[in-house]
């Protein structure tokens, strides 16, 4: 298709991992007259800004929650912004893989960094674009216009409302605002009979809250496994409800396997019991923690048609999980659930080149047609599209390579870095592929070190010898 933009003003929504990468890529193009980053928090870093347990009572989630179109509260304040980070959370992949390609973590950090170390890393990375970030700014509405977009925002500090126009908008808000909890039989009745005994992992803060309790954890993704491992030594009994078959649980900690149960069939609040699909039962249940993920929710796009948000399990009308096909001057970063820093850089490189008119997109018809066969390929194993944006290895590596190759085909523009090619992330080499293929084993070996894991700085400290060590 032809060139997209007339106005060289670009807005980025969110100053986390992806938003900061987008700002740097746009600046590197030396093309745009205005690059504004809207951030609702008071600091950069996105979800890695930890919200303490003292605020947890202010952030109870709706149980069940299966509706993505959540309105912005009229009295929205910074207290409404809760992070899904819990007290002693650590990365689930090595910092040698979880990084921006041109900005390594300090070598003296543990191999899988703690959440506050990750926040410090992101904030250090974002220092050079701080002057572009508008803190405590809530985006209320993004409305399409004939040429570009109108953004209505509200200052959480002063209450002042502003309307501004941009040629393009990049959404980099992540997917950790609206927790998803399935509407299981008996769940609504349980929340009435036993208020406060069911939470989503977003509100989990510390395992000490579950001492001597009988606990059910629902979901065996990264959060489900990690939270279960932390609770297990302290609680009286733990049940881990998982849809995954035992053959797919090689990454499970051995001590959790004995506590594994199938999906929940129903809750029986009158007896504080939970029945599983194999007809076994957990009794005298004190707490249930849903580690079931999140819904995509973008209330500022409520009036956009066709709307990209339906069920909330995927973002519709996106080309390559990136551009809004009906009007591609709107882009979404970080929809794919893969290596966040690497994919943020690669996606940002593509978007910046397209908006700077160095790289063209296919026709709108071709972009709209891309989604149908992609959805059909995954429909049998994923009928409700919950995993449309989820990639496993090596799919994630192939997606990242595709993006970098795509960005590399941009028109050379004299004066830009890299001999006119512009800012471009470094492609993965053999060592990155080797780490990614072994990420579960690396994480398990790291956790097995117990408190001594703070002294584990390298893969070699865990006995892993890759094809390339530097």
Automatic annotation (TrEMBL):
The keyword Flavoprotein applies. It comes from the Eukaryota. This is FAD/NAD(P)-binding domain-containing protein. Keywords: FAD, Flavoprotein, NADP, Oxidoreductase. Gene3D superfamilies: FAD/NAD(P)-binding domain. One of its GO terms (molecular function) is NADP binding. It comes from Lophium mytilinum. InterPro entries: FAD/NAD-bd_sf, Flavin_mOase, Flavin_mOase-like, FMO-like. Belongs to the FMO family. The keyword Aminoacyl-tRNA synthetase does not apply.
